[in-house]
Specification:
Order of helices and strands: HHHEE
Oligomer: single chain
Helix content: 40-55%
Radius of gyration: 13 Å
Shape: globular
Low-confidence stretches: none
Distance between the termini: 37 Å
Structural class: alpha+beta
């Protein structure tokens, strides 16, 4: 189970760094070069993800992780949006 919890923590850290803090440098630290993107609207690979994050506008709401579930092979997460204070 330690592996599952480590994967879950990694995904939550990546989502926070990339999409809440808009930190493209986190891609190099947290993603493999051959990162597989499962969203068909986003190009494959870590470099493409870093470019996407660098182009994101400032957040207009805060994303809060509301649920993360992990298995040996997959980690799933969901978020909810709340207005900025």
């Amino acid at each position: 189970m330690r592996h599952v919890e480590r994967n879950k923590a990694l995904v939550l850290e990546a989502m926070t760094a990339l999409f809440r803090h808009r930190d493209p440098g986190a891609v190099e630290r947290l993603c493999a070069p051959d990162y597989i993107q499962h969203n068909p609207n986003i190009p494959q690979g870590a470099e493409a993800l870093a470019r996407l994050v660098a182009q994101l506008p400032p957040p207009v709401s805060m994303s809060h992780s509301s649920r993360a579930t992990a298995s040996l092979r997959f980690t799933f997460f969901s978020t909810r949006k709340a207005p900025e204070p």
